[in-house]
Write a structure and sequence with these properties.
The complex is a heterodimer of chains A (642) and B (270).
Chain A (H helix, E strand, L loop, with lengths): L19 H8 L5 H4 L3 E5 L3 H13 L2 E5 L17 E2 L11 H11 L6 H20 L25 E2 L5 H18 L3 E4 L2 E9 L2 E9 L5 E5 L2 E4 L20 H8 L4 E2 L4 E7 L22 E5 L16 E2 L1 H5 L9 H13 L11 E4 L1 H7 L1 H19 L8 E10 L2 E2 L12 E3 L17 H23 L10 H19 L4 E2 H16 L5 H21 E2 L9 H25 L23 H4 L1 E6 L8 E6 L14
Parallel strand pairs in A: 1-2, 1-9, 2-5, 9-17, 18-19
Antiparallel strand pairs in A: 3-4, 6-7, 7-8, 10-16, 10-20, 11-15, 12-13, 12-14, 14-15, 20-21
Helix pairs in contact in A: 3-6, 3-12, 4-5, 5-12, 10-11, 14-15, 14-16, 15-16
Chain B lengths: L12 E10 L6 E11 L5 H14 L21 E3 L2 E2 L21 E6 L7 E3 L2 E2 L2 H10 L19 H11 L6 H5 L6 H12 L8 H14 L10 H5 L7 H15 L13
Parallel strand pairs in B: 1-5
Antiparallel strand pairs in B: 1-2, 3-4, 3-5, 6-7
Helix pairs in contact in B: 2-6, 3-5, 5-6, 5-8, 6-8
The chains are: A alpha/beta (642), B alpha+beta (270).
The complex binds flavin-adenine dinucleotide (FAD), iron/sulfur cluster and FE2/S2 (inorganic) cluster.
Chain lengths: 642, 270
């Protein structure tokens, strides 16, 4: 493989992997406490990553401004995470360790993540739990008063900490409260209902942002010494996903257009257990926690067009396809494997429900074994949520589930400092590409967001602030003026289209193209077809979309239009990325690259790299740069769950 | 409920909506009537509003503004008063989790924003709830700077305490309690946070100060006081109990017995 291009120097320290982070922290420049208040840090996003970063930086004494789309920072999408957060505490004494969490994460990511980063994540995982407990996060406890753990996502050890089915909510409220304490103390200025629409780069360094005030419609400029993008994932490029409605690619896409490379955009996680689509009005999909697979058996009828209701179908007429294909892991195979297997059965005509795009997830045997009460204890809230949405009673009728887009492993390229290819622009949480390779393990996104925000960026930002000359900038500088003009022109252009189709209809059509051709399985020809479809849809959008113009201020349709316009540009990059990677790995399954048994076939010879894309202009081909990946500690092997 | 019904009964319903429209803060508002001839019983309430908005765009009209995000009952963004009840007719259900199967063909439904002095209307069904953030910034936290925490198991927490803390911590900050209260009091929201932290050892050092500061901030924001109507509890989608209020009142009273703590000054929620 060709050598690493200089702009993709990961800056990973050398030496034994367990000492790298310590060594790096020691080598990073420190900033004198008295000088910290002279630096102003702009934090965009208030999910786990943004809220924890803002709180920690303010604790250190920096001046911080925080921006988010929602009316309150507490409503960031992290709030919706259900299952849990991993840490290598080994409280259950079942053989866990930093080394094992590191190993599982690298392997789970199908050997497409950087070893140094993942090792650091595993090391920090334990501190995160301590910090969250101290902030008052009401984690589940054992009767002895110690923290409870469960096994999650097929892990062989119990390392997942949780707060009922609301772990994301409780962690976010912890980080949010830490942030709000500093808002109260005056160190953090909070700007809610703001959408960041541009990063301002001066002399090659990120020095500010331009936002739109979503209530008044005013454009607002903010200047600072560093910009942190903590803006979450872009799963909504598929329209239907488990993400909240405001999740978008806009912030990272605008930064990409200003020079930040985009890494592995095609790496998407499709979660196997979501409530299937029920009609054309469907606005989003709901996840049924992975923990359910611990007690459920997934099946379809053996006979196509089986007329009997599920509870009348005897075992001999059921195909427990995960147990059949993967006898040793059974229903607990990783997400990507479980999702593809369900799709395979439905594509072959064995799906259930009116659409044929669903499989059964059945608790019958667990209820017989443990009793309904025990199952209610464990999953009562999830069963209730399912019943609310579907009006089916999962205690008596198997759930119907189908895979749905859930998480995006791709994101802006960052080095070991979480700094993008634009100096001074840091990217945290789901918005960066860093730790999950081609497939994320359950309960590790919450861990990564908090690791980035609480414990990594507060150190690494010092290297930037102390190491670079940062001349004073002001929001009246020409760069800010230019940026605001370009943002305003784009919005004015959207408002002036005056066509016939609603923005939502474009978004739905884009989502369908992406799901059909860049979803669970991809082919070279399908991707080429999708690329043309996206280009045509993008042109039509700019000619024929329609946004109500009666309100220049609060206009939710205009907000949506801006995000869809960006998705329409970004989608093409996803397609390009999926096209060049003609191997199968993790969540990326290329039909051309499979074994005789239909399993994913990775190609380490040719594809053991991070694909980092440089923007060359809309409608122009982006340039691909490659950061080669080296594995010194975990030897790449084909994943097998048979 | 034994037969699968997710895709049964696709019978469409005719629904008339009486919706509050208001162009902006301090502007006069009015009720507007819209008729939807083909509502599916499987739609969520918000999906029905989406369908309405798509039609409004097609006819060149401005869409109905409403807050929403997760659409699964956890973010607390949705904030509709449906037929006079915050979050609508179903108990323990946010507006986004309400499904149209609870309505019948021919129904008329009234939709309004949450109303409270401290929640000014921004547009249509959207209100400003930043007062809640300011209440939290006044004291709804444990002061534990990053990096200063002991091992997570250094302080054991009895399971029943942790469970009750979690019950209170389940609050989603939606504001339905204040919208439902005849005095527009935010007491249930404040009490839920105070109770959550008071039930955990980590919350003890600042316990009384927290209660005092949060109640003080609540008053400053223009919420009314609690006179035990308990409408809040009936409206709360997360089942937060008024027992929290009793618990908070104890902490609040205690704080007066001790030396009056310094209250935080000058928050900058912008
Ligand atoms: C249903 C569901 C369940 C999940 N369960 C788990 C789980 O059990 N365990 C686990 O580890 N992971 C889970 N995940 C994944 C995990 O929740 C997310 O990856 C993680 O919370 C992302 O956090 P974040 O801080 O990076 O971003 P987010 O929480 O998405 O926050 C993004 C922030 O950026 C702001 N923002 C975005 N764009 C802009 C803009 N242009 N301008 C201004 N602000 C902007 C938003 O307002 C928001 O404040 C789950 C995900 C889903 C969808
Ligand atoms: S107490 Fe209940 S009603 Fe009030 S904000 Fe919390 S969840 Fe909403
Ligand atoms: S939209 Fe999130 S709770 Fe209703």
């Amino acid at each position: 493989m060709s050598p690493t291009p200089p702009q993709l120097d990961s800056k990973c320290p050398s030496g034994p992997i367990s000492e790298r982070w310590d060594k790096h922290r020691f080598e990073l420049k420190l900033i004198n406490p008295a000088n910290r208040r002279k630096f102003h840090v702009l934090v965009v996003g208030t999910g786990l990553a943004g809220a924890s970063a803002a709180a920690s930086l303010a604790d250190l004494g920096y001046r911080v401004s925080v921006f988010c789309i929602q009316d309150s920072p507490r409503r960031a999408h992290s709030i919706a995470a259900q299952g849990g957060i991993n840490a290598a505490k080994n409280y259950p004494n079942d053989g866990d360790s930093v080394q094992r969490l590191f190993y599982d994460t690298v392997k789970g990511g199908d050997f497409r993540a950087r070893e140094s980063n993942v090792y650091r994540l595993a090391q920090i995982s334990n501190q995160i739990i301590d910090q969250c407990v101290a902030l008052g996060v009401p984690f589940a406890r054992e009767y002895g008063g110690g923290l409870a753990n469960r096994s999650f996502g097929g892990a062989q050890v119990s390392r997942t900490f949780y707060a009922r089915g609301q772990t994301g909510q409780q962690l976010l409220l912890g980080a949010y409260s830490a942030m709000m304490r500093q808002v109260g103390s005056g160190r953090i200025a909070l700007y809610a209902r703001r959408e960041m629409l541009d990063v301002v780069v001066i002399d090659g360094v990120a020095r500010g942002i331009v936002c739109r005030n979503l209530v008044t419609g005013a454009y607002e400029r903010s200047a600072g010494d560093a910009v942190l993008l903590c803006t979450g994932g872009y799963g909504n490029v598929f329209y239907l996903s488990t993400n909240a409605k405001a999740c978008n690619v806009t912030a990272v896409w605008r930064a990409h257009k200003r020079g930040a490379y985009f890494a592995n955009p095609c790496f998407t996680q499709i979660h196997p257990t979501c409530i299937p689509v029920s009609g054309s009005y469907q606005s989003k999909l709901t996840l049924m926690s992975e923990s359910l697979r611990n007690d459920a058996r997934v099946w379809v009828p053996k006979q196509k067009g089986e007329p009997r209701p599920p509870h009348n179908i005897p075992d001999e007429d059921r195909d427990y396809f995960l147990e059949r294909r993967y006898p040793s892991f059974g229903n607990l195979v990783p997400r990507d494997v479980a999702s593809r297997a369900a799709k395979e059965r439905c594509d072959a005509g064995f799906g259930v429900g009116t659409t044929g795009l669903a499989v059964y997830m059945d608790f019958r045997d667990a209820i017989r074994r443990d009793g309904e009460g025990a199952i209610r204890q464990k999953y009562g809230n999830l069963f209730q949520m399912y019943a609310k949405i579907t009006a089916d009673d999962p205690y008596h009728v198997p759930m119907r589930i189908y895979p749905a887009v859930h998480y995006t492993m791709g994101g802006l390229w960052v080095d070991y400092n979480l700094e993008s290819t634009v100096p001074g622009l840091f990217v945290l949480g789901e918005a960066n590409f860093s730790d999950h390779g081609a497939n994320r393990l359950g309960a590790s996104a919450l861990m990564q967001g908090l690791a980035d925000g609480f414990f990594i960026v507060p150190y690494t930002i010092g290297g930037h602030l102390a190491g670079r000359k940062l001349p004073a900038v002001s929001p009246t500088d020409k760069a800010f003026e230019d940026s605001e003009r370009s943002v305003r022109e784009r919005i004015d252009r959207i408002l002036s289209i005056g066509g016939k189709r609603t923005v939502d209809s474009f978004h739905r059509e884009l989502g369908k193209i992406m799901w059909d051709h860049c979803g669970m399985a991809r082919t070279g020809s399908g991707l080429a077809f999708a690329k043309q479809g996206i280009q045509a849809l993008r042109s039509e959008f700019w000619e024929n979309s329609r946004v109500p113009t009666s309100s220049a201020g609060l206009n939710q349709n205009l907000e949506h239009a801006g995000r869809v316009a960006d998705f329409l540009e970004f989608a093409e990059l996803m397609i390009d990325d999926a096209s060049q990677r003609s191997e199968s790995c993790g969540g990326h399954f290329r039909e051309e690259s499979q074994t005789d048994e239909g399993e994913a076939k990775r190609d380490d010879e040719r594809f053991s790299y991070v694909a980092a894309w440089q923007h060359e202009g809309v409608g122009k081909e982006s340039t691909l740069h490659r950061e080669p990946l080296a594995f010194e500690y975990v030897r790449p092997s084909q994943r097998s769950y048979k | 409920m034994s037969a699968p019904s997710h895709d049964a009964g696709s019978g469409r319903m005719r629904i008339t909506l009486k919706i509050w429209r208001q162009e902006g803060p301090n502007r006069p508002g009015k009720v507007e009537t819209h008729f939807l001839p083909d509502v599916s019983p499987h739609m969520s309430f918000l999906e029905m509003l989406d369908v309405l908005n798509e039609r409004l765009i097609a006819s060149g009209l401005d869409t109905v503004a409403f807050d929403h995000d997760c659409r699964e009952g956890i973010c607390g963004a949705c904030s509709l008063v449906i037929d006079g009840r915050a979050h609508g007719p179903e108990a323990l259900t946010t507006a986004c989790q309400l499904h149209m199967r609870h309505y019948s063909d021919g129904d008329t439904i009234h939709v309004e924003p949450f109303r409270a002095n401290a929640f000014p209307v921004l547009k249509d069904l959207m209100v400003d709830r930043s007062a809640f953030d300011r209440i939290i910034s006044a004291g709804g936290f444990v002061s534990s700077p990053t990096g200063s925490a002991p091992d997570g198991n250094a302080i054991l927490v009895p399971k029943p305490d942790a469970d009750r803390a979690m019950d209170a911590a389940a609050c989603i900050g939606c504001g339905a309690c204040a919208a439902a209260c005849p005095n527009a009091s935010a007491m249930l929201f404040v009490a839920a946070k105070v109770a959550h932290l008071a039930l955990l050892p980590q919350g003890q050092p600042e316990r009384e100060r927290r209660a005092l500061a949060m109640v003080h901030a609540m008053d400053e924001e223009g919420f009314g006081s609690c006179t035990n109507h308990f409408e809040c509890m009936a409206a709360c989608p997360k089942g937060i109990s008024v027992e929290s209020i009793a618990r908070m009142n104890r902490d609040f009273a205690l704080s007066f017995l001790k030396e009056a703590p310094d209250l935080p000054t000058g928050s900058s929620v912008g």
